TrEMBL record:
Residue intervals of the PAS domain: 424-497
CDD domains per UniProt: GGDEF, HAMP, HDc, PAS
Name assigned to this protein: PAS domain S-box-containing protein/diguanylate cyclase (GGDEF) domain-containing protein
Organism from which the protein derives: Alkalibacter saccharofermentans DSM 14828
GGDEF domain: residues covered: 583-713
Matches recorded under SUPFAM superfamilies: HAMP domain-like, HD-domain/PDEase-like, Nucleotide cyclase, PYP-like sensor domain (PAS domain), Sensory domain-like
Residues annotated as domain HAMP: 356-408
Amino acid sequence: MKAKSISIKTVIILVFLIALLILTGGSLYIVFDNWMKSAEDTTATLADELHREIITEVNEYMHVPRHIVEVNRGLIERKIVEIDNSAERDVFFINSMKTHIDEEVYSFSFGTNAGEYYGARKNQLNEIEVMINNSETNGESWYYSIDEQHRLVKKVVNAGSFDPRTRDWFKAAIDSEEVVFSPVYKHFVMHDLTVSAAVPIYDDSGELYGVLSSHMTLNRINENLEEISRGNKALIAIVERDTGYVIANSIGTDNFMENSDGIFERITVEDLDDKALSGIYNNYINMDEYEKLDVEGDAYQSRISPYQANGIDWLVISTVPLSLITNDLFLGMQKALAYSLSISTALFLIFVFGVKRLLSPIDELVRVNEKLIKGDLTARAGPSKYIEVGRLADSFNETADELYHLIYNLESEVEMRTYELFNEKERFRTTLLSVGDGVIATDKKGLVTVMNPIAENLTGWSLSEAKGKHFIDVFKIINEQTREICEDPVQKVLDTGGIVELANHTVLIAKNGRETPIEDSVGPIKAQSGKITGVVIVFRDFSDKKEKLKEIEYLSFHDHLTGLYNRRYMEDTIARLDQDRNLPLAIMVIDVNGLKLTNDAFGHKMGDELLVRVSNILKEKCRSVDIVGRMGGDEFCVLLPKTSLEEAEQVKKRILNRASNTKIDSIVVSLAVGFAVKENKGQDIKDVMTIADNNMYKDKLKYGKAMRNRTIETVLKNINHKYDQEQIHTERVSQYCEEIARAMGFEENKIQEIKTAGILHDIGKIMVPSEILNKPSKLTDEEFEIIKRHPETSYQILKSVDEYSVFAEDVLYHHERPDGKGYPEGLIGDEIPINSRIIAVADAYEAMTAKRPYQNPKSKDEALEELVRCSGTQFDLKIVDIFVNIMRKA
């Protein structure tokens, strides 16, 4: 029997050992193989998610500057914001930067076509500074700090000479005609790369006014990419597709460098000294496999996406090493292998031991079972000399082992969950105390349990003082308008179980009596079972927002230049006043005669002053119950409730009398006024408005012509006052033009036209500063460019007056040359009107023979010889011959 037992034991042990080895080895192979595939899939998923996050970050980063110029371009194009108005301009740029103070934009600016540059930027302390670059700063960029009222305090930085027209973003915007991103460039002040979003702005005549742009530094993208890649060993780079130049990266390397000579140089992806990133880029460019890449024995999951916008063609590259997953996986495999070997060895030893004790008594199993029932989880069945009992004991022991592990793991799980719950509670408390809004929590009885610092500041109560007190004793709120105490929102939530929001005009009275307008939301705190365990109140100081809403409301109904009500308000008011109790209701329409002519002749600043002066006249001469508004442009409107036709006529007379006695410099204020009265409810208010408009236009036709003629006379007087020799010059030019025209056989009416054109040919010099007109030395290039604009100004002035429009083209082209080198349009030969060619000869001769601040006069013969020398190129050959003959006979 003993020999037979040994034989069976040996066979059983051998069979068990072989089966154990096959089972363990096969299981480990399957598990490890699945783990490796899972690691690859996990890495690929991680790479996809990471890449999507990067693309989202880049989209958000690049959206901000583009959004800024898209939103604000219309304000400048529609002249809602006047760049020439320094106060309005500064507030515009400051508010734009404050709106995006926490975003990536470094500066927001406008460069004019004349080389002026204005804007605002964030300094290193994230404070806003205003930038000015114009003739007053001698073409240098000066940065000013500002106070809380957006006023300039002092100059803090002189960044040196700067011309926006030379910058890549300015040129790119002009070429694109729409919002465009500039090429990457070195910032002219900061030690960083910069990219700009820019859009061209054109004036009403279609001429380029300037370029509106927002600028951001690329080092901030580096910081974002480093944040994204932190913790997952990912490598990220953004490069230009065609050149490989680095836009941003996550490896902590600058996107540019300075060579030994201090010269700025950009770096390529090859310069990053990372073979994974450069390998991915090169494979992508060469259309090779790049998503799975092996570099020096390391495997990577890589992704590339093009990022394109107007002016931008970038590649976003990201790669995640497989080792991110496999390192921990291999460590887990080693532990699993050691664990499996240990378990297998233990099982083998147990099995051997069990085989030896196969015939252990059955009651041993019963005793062990009783120990297990009583909680002794370490109890195990002893050996048995019986084979059947031994097999049963082994099965029993395996069941006991499994039960032990389950219970042990349950205790560990409970301990872990308890720790996590504690941490979650602490995180909640930390969050509650850190949020920017005031937060108060109560229990289900409405007693305060938690207050964060913001709530303490707004209520004037500390947590130690308020804890345990009823909410309504700490949080005293009233209606701002009625001063009545508001209903307890906490009690309302406890009663209804729903979320409650405070009504508008709610004011919080602090412990010290300070009143603060607030807005809040109150909601229940519920257990998992749905039972209410308390209430949480989140509230904030509404003061700043309330003031901004008031300001927005004011701007939405008022004209920004005059302070009068705007068209929207007036149209709403007309509908509101159209009721029987306001009859008779008079509507008066006022138009400023010659506003366009004033703008062309004296500049828009003078035109704005004219509009402001008119608005003051209307407010002064209308009654307090009358409603005065600016409908837009040069048109105003007055609504006069309970006003008869005779009373409206008296108001009109007062306005016209005051206007006729008002002057701005030498300009007389001239108004066209029409009105109509709704006398019974059967009349349509729209018809009354139409009648008022028609009456105004009749008035305008009657007096507008005389006003424009007076303005032309005023312009001529002002020119003569600015330039000592101008009257003599124009009279002589007119005389010479008359003599040439007679010699050429012109009809008498044409002779009178050219004679008048000679008087008016330099009327555009009204816009040229007197210091340039009377400068004794040679003009600079910039000053000459200003002089060259006077024919176009002359054209605009004369074109706006019907009686003088016939002379507009004659004076526009009197500086053109037959050889095409003249200005403003470079016309050639007979393309130049004959009258313009005559004026050119007369003007040149008079200029050469007259005494000027910058030259001594030529003799008659010297001047004629100069005309002959330049005939055919600068002057018309035939006209020069005629004029020379006239002068030699004289």
